[in-house]
Amino acid sequence: MVLGVEKPDASGVSTPTQKCEAQLLFAANVRRFRKAQSISQEKLAEYAGLHTNYISSVERGERNISICNIERIARGLGVSMPDLLSPQPTPDSENS
After folding, report:
1. Could you read off the pLDDT of 78-90 as tens digits, one per residue?
2. Rounded distance, CA 65 to CA 43, Å?
3. Which of 50, 62, 85, 90 has the fewest CB atoms within 10 Å around its CB?
4. What is the DSSP secondary-structure string of the chain?
5. CA 13, CA 34: separation in Å to the nearest integer?
6. Contact 26, 20 (CB under 8 A)
7. pLDDT band at residue 19 under the 50/70/90 scheme
8. Angle CA(47)–CA(49)–CA(55) in degrees, nearest 5?
9. Distance (Å, rounded) from C-alpha 46 to C-alpha 90?
10. 59-75 as b/e, with b when 16 or more CB fall inside 10 Å?
11. Can you tell me the mean pLDDT for 50-67?
């Protein structure tokens, strides 16, 4: 679990936001696939039927995203849902 920026809750008390490794992996993969296709966050949002601000927050790892929205983003990128949740091989591991 990775701790993020502290944000106040409804009572005004600051608590750290928590980001799990899967959330950060998903965020990195969405950004990687989007950039590999040279599409903007705005275009991805349009393709996925989501708001641009939502895509931006997903790519920053700020969203604990639902399965339905994982599916929408995967379809928008033209990839499978597992592609967005799988670690990508490093250049060193490809040569092994």
Report:
1. 999 999 999 987 6
2. 19
3. 90
4. -EEEEEEE-TTS-EEEEEE-HHHHHHHHHHHHHHHHTT--HHHHHHHHT--HHHHHHHHTT-----HHHHHHHHHHHTS-HHHHHSPPPPHHHHT-
5. 36
6. no
7. confident
8. 85
9. 31
10. bebbbebeeebbebbbe
11. 96
Q: Across all residues in the chain, what is the average pLDDT?
A: 85
Residue 5 structure tokens? 């920026």
Q: Which residues pair with 42 in a beta bridge?
A: none
Q: What are 49's two structure tokens?
A: 């039927």
Question: Distance (Å, rounded) from C-alpha 30 to C-alpha 34?
Answer: 6
Residue 94 reports pLDDT greater than 80: no
